[in-house]
Each structure stands twice: as C-alpha cells, then as structure tokens.
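Hey, resending since the last one bounced:
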Amino acid sequence: MRVLVLNGERETSAAWSAALSARGHAVFTASIPENAMEMLRSETFDLMIFDILVGDGSGLGVALLAEFHQPNCATMLVSNFDPAFQQDLFSRLSSLKAVLGRGSPVEDLVTFAESCVEDAGGHDPVSKPAQAHA
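The structure tokens again:
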C-alpha cells in the first residue's frame, strides 16, 4: 500500500510513517499542503491520511484534490473536530473512510489505514465508513 501522510507535526508523521513502514507499506510525508498536492499530481497513492488544518493550509482541500486526481485513493482524517462536523465530511468527501482522534494509538491508525484500503477495494461496498474517536 502507498500512503501519503499530510500532517504539520513532524514527530507525529514520523511515528505514523515508522509504524506503517514496519507493516511493509510505502509512506510519503508532507508537512504543508502544497507539497502534498504536488505529490498527488505526480505519484499514485492508495490512502491519504490528513488533518483538517495543516499549518496555514487546508488538509481538506488536499483531500478533495486527491479525490479528483486519484478517485481510487481512500482518505482518512485524524482530527479532534466535533463529531457532527466529521459526519458532515462523510457526505462531502466520498473517499473518506475513517475518522480517528488525534490521541489515538499508532497501532489503531495502522489498523484503520489498512482497513480503509481494503474497503476501498470493493470488499464491502455497502458498509458505512468506520469511525473512531479518542
């Protein structure tokens, strides 16, 4: 699985990257939206993990760009925004498969990430996206 992580916190990105890489996944990281957008235009990804706000930019805007350029790329949000807001995102971003709270254990992130890509592959197209909140 090829994963793009868009997160402004380098320590967090490094922890996620290490955990995903340990499971055999190719992980690419971006700490600003512009770099993530450039990667989405030139590389192919199975999953993008993002936060709503990344520095001064919008992770959601990048997720929408990913949906346009790579319709087979699933997305996963890691955020502590209000659950009602998160639910609204599922209706606006069809590639969104899961929402995790920022304080979620890295092992949970890896499990959900792998599940998101399996679900995107058509194994269970009728099921609702999984949500977890920390």
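Strands lie at 2-6, 26-30, 47-50, 53-54, 57-58, 74-78, 96-100, 130-131.

Sorry for the duplicate.
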